[in-house]
């Protein structure tokens, strides 16, 4: 629900009185007037240019400008997020920011940031290339050095063998010539670089196949990950050196390196050149590192400067875009000097809106003031309830079913009490209620901090419904005290039990039962009932009958609300031919059942209520016998049965014929006064429009009334039975709690072992929190929700209205671009 400041007395039963208003605003003060109305947040604009596309509207260029500035701000926010910065929430608020100056400033900052990023990317690219080059120089140098050393060792061994005597192991003549004559040795070329370790095996295989084995490949593993200059990501790589012979082999190798994304780097065989290149690369790396650090510091300072004003700039751009969107909904006067606006506002806000328009005229130095005039209309106004942080959550529960029709009775007035109470009937345990209350008190105490944070979806819903859960917890403590259950354990809180054993040893307690020795336990269920043989039958009977009483009471409240609706809208047909027969039918059957339950409780009678209700229909004239609870019961049952039978045709037949008669009289011009029966045209319902009188179909009206009658008659039975879920869920909650206590906690206690006891306590806590405090809470919440939406609200609530969505800057803080 829209939470606004409410100047009049808050009244949730009927929505605020609304009026359709026309505003004629001079062009020079239009922007400021819309801005002040946005600050006020009590005016809903109608789109007077619905037939035009967004690009054909007057302020399309300004919206485009705002969208471009919003894009730049998102660009800044992305970079702040990447660097781990957050926009400052304590930015200096200055009211002299001009949109044109802001546009220029954002453009300059964007250009500067793009230039810094571009330079940093180039420097990072060069730095990563030099890091790879240094690795190639190190690893390839090690390969060449080890190869030269092993070649020198082999050459010395051959020379030693040549000076000795010839043997079968001596090299052949050709080999000797090649060794002794350097001019006849073959000169090999090589390519060095880095390749991804994942691709190294495939790279080697492809090289071998492409050159038919006429290459020699050496690889060396790089221990740490390397930032790839192209992708900018950390990759595990290997340094490779490929030796080849011939230009064709070289071309193939170069193409394969490109295909595999292998970065190639030059390498000199001469040791002095290698040392010189290594020195140059190391010096260049130090210089680049220093330059990159300076660039990042400059970028950080720039982003800090932006972050300090970011929230203020962002809010300004959002406001301007919102204002221009609203201005596009206004139509231009024929003189092209004024803008005409139409929209809805609460009647109590008339003075505030007029003051805002006058202030806009003065601040913009306009010669002409804005005109405020109320329009007469038959259009149905939007529904607006003025709520606060406590009532808004309950209003959202009702709105999820349907938005109330204009000035229809609002169920949330009663939901504030009945919803948590019906929940507590199913969840009655004052131990569990205290746990829920502690959680919600934490959320309420820290609501200022938590409301500014981004919570998860489930936590967000829990936080928004914190006051609903608080009421549920308070009522659960109350019903838990009535049921006398604290984690299923009874306590003698309000005095000693009224029952005791027949003797001190209590040996006959399981056979002869207990006797009453004191006055009745003053509040709730006597603790002695717990753990006895008759506990379940007694509690079943109590909770089942209590569920019926609560259900009939709430359904009667719903029908009573339909009377107040009909009286408010001046609909006498609904009072006499809907409200009266519905009350008669419901209370002739289930109101009478509720009376029997109360009489049986008060008198202690052993009468069978099932037998009484069944034979009230099957054999209404038979003698009641032992099932008679009071004098005149038989006559009363006959009277109520006849009343219920009369109520059905009373609901079905008169209303369609009377509607037909009204239509015919209106069509003949005999009762025009019915159309203009009120001075306020907003109270005329849309279905009384003159165009619809011509389309009156008696058959459709009769079938609709027939469906409504059948639905109510069958619903009276099914809805009453539906309230038995209060008994079923209360029993399930109690039994689950008892099982966890008896079979987990007491069982672990009986072993006299500390470890088993600790494990038992942990299991008990986890089961209580997971099953009873989470799953059972959700289950009882959903069942209470169904009882309100279906069993209660369908008696009177139409819910076919539409919500009041005012033009308000207060909503901008919750919107993401």
TrEMBL record:
Main location: membrane
Superkingdom to which the source organism belongs: Eukaryota
Protein name from the UniProt record: V-type proton ATPase subunit a
Cross-referenced Pfam families: V_ATPase_I (PF01496)
Compartment list: Membrane
Function: Essential component of the vacuolar proton pump (V-ATPase), a multimeric enzyme that catalyzes the translocation of protons across the membranes. Required for assembly and activity of the V-ATPase.
Membrane topology label: Multi-pass membrane protein
Membrane-spanning intervals of the chain: 421-445, 466-483, 546-564, 576-599, 635-653, 755-775
Coiled coil: 99-126
InterPro entries per record: V-ATPase_116kDa_su, V-type_ATPase_116kDa_su_euka
């Amino acid at each position: 629900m829209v939470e606004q400041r409410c100047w009049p007395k808050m009244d949730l039963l009927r929505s605020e009185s609304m009026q359709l208003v026309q505003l004629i605003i001079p062009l020079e003060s239009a922007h400021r007037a819309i801005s002040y109305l946005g600050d006020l947040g009590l005016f809903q604009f109608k789109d007077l240019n619905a037939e035009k596309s967004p690009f054909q509207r007057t302020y399309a260029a300004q919206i485009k400008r705002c969208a471009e500035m919003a894009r730049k701000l998102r660009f800044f926010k992305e970079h702040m997020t990447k660097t781990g910065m957050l926009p400052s929430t304590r930015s200096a608020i200055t009211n002299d920011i001009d949109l044109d100056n802001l546009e220029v400033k954002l453009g300059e900052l964007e250009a500067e940031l793009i230039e810094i990023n571009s330079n940093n990317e180039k420097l990072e690219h060069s730095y990563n290339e030099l890091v790879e080059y240094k690795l190639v120089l190190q690893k390839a140098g090690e390969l060449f050095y080890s190869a030269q050393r092993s070649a020198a060792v082999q050459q010395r061994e051959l020379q030693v063998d040549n000076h000795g005597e010839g043997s079968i192991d001596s090299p052949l003549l050709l080999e000797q010539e090649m060794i002794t004559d350097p001019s006849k040795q073959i000169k090999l070329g090589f390519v060095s670089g880095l390749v991804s370790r994942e691709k190294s095996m495939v790279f080697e295989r492809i090289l071998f196949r492409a050159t038919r084995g006429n290459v020699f490949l050496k690889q060396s593993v790089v221990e740490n990950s390397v930032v790839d200059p192209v992708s900018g990501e950390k990759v595990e790589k290997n340094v490779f050196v490929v030796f080849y012979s011939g230009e064709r082999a070289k071309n193939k190798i170069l193409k394969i390196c490109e295909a595999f994304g292998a970065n190639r780097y030059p390498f000199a065989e001469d040791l002095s050149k290698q040392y010189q290149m290594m020195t140059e690369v190391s010096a260049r790396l130090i210089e680049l590192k220093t330059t990159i650090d300076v660039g990042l510091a400059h970028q950080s300072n720039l982003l800090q400067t932006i972050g300090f004003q970011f929230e203020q700039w962002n809010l300004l751009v959002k406001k301007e875009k919102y204002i221009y969107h609203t201005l596009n909904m206004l139509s231009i006067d024929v003189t092209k000097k004024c803008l005409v606006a139409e929209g809805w506002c609460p009647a109590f806000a008339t003075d505030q809106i007029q003051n805002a328009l006058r202030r806009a005229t003065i601040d913009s130095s306009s010669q002409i003031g804005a005109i405020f005039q109320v329009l007469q209309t038959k259009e149905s106004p939007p529904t607006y309830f003025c709520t606060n942080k406590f009532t808004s959550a309950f209003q959202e529960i009702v709105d999820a079913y349907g938005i109330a029709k204009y000035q229809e009775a609002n169920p949330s007035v009663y939901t504030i009490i009945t919803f948590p109470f019906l929940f507590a009937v199913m969840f009655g345990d004052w131990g569990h209620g205290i746990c829920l209350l502690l959680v919600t008190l934490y959320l309420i105490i820290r609501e200022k901090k938590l409301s500014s944070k981004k919570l998860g979806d489930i936590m967000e819903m829990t936080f928004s419904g914190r006051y609903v859960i608080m009421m549920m917890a308070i009522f659960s403590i109350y019903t838990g005290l009535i049921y006398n259950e604290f984690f299923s354990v009874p306590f003698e809180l309000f005095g000693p039990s009224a029952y005791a054993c027949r003797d001190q040893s209590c040996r006959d307690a399981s056979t002869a039962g207990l006797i009453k020795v004191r006055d009745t336990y003053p509040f709730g269920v006597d603790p002695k009932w717990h753990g006895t043989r008759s506990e379940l039958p007694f509690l079943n009977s109590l909770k089942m009958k209590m569920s019926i009483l609560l259900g009939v009471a709430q359904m009667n409240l719903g029908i009573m609300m339909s009377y107040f609706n009909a009286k408010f809208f001046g609909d006498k047909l609904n009072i006499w031919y809907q409200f009266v027969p519905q009350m008669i039918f419901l209370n002739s059957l289930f109101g009478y059942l509720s009376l029997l339950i109360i009489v049986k409780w008060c008198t202690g009678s052993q009468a069978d209520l099932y037998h009484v209700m069944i034979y009230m229909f099957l054999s209404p004239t038979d003698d009641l016998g032992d099932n008679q609870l009071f004098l005149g019961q038989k006559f009363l049952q006959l009277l109520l049965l006849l009343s219920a039978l009369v109520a059905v045709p009373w609901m079905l037949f008169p209303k369609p014929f009377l509607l037909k008669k009204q239509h015919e009289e209106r069509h003949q011009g005999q009762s025009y006064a019915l159309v203009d029966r009120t001075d306020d045209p907003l109270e005329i319902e849309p279905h009384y429009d003159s165009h619809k009188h011509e389309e009156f179909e008696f058959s459709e009206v009769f079938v609709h009334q027939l469906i409504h009658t059948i639905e109510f008659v069958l619903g009276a039975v099914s809805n009453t039975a539906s309230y038995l879920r209060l008994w079923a869920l209360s029993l399930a909650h109690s039994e689950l709690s008892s099982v966890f206590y008896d079979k987990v906690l007491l069982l672990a206690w009986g072993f006299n072992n500390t470890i088993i006891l600790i494990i038992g306590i942990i299991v008990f806590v986890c089961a209580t929190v997971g099953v009873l405090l989470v799953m059972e809470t959700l289950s009882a919440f959903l069942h209470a929700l169904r009882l309100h939406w279906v069993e209660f609200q369908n008696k009177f609530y139409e819910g076919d209205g539409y919500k009041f969505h005012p033009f308000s800057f207060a909503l901008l803080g919750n919107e993401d671009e």
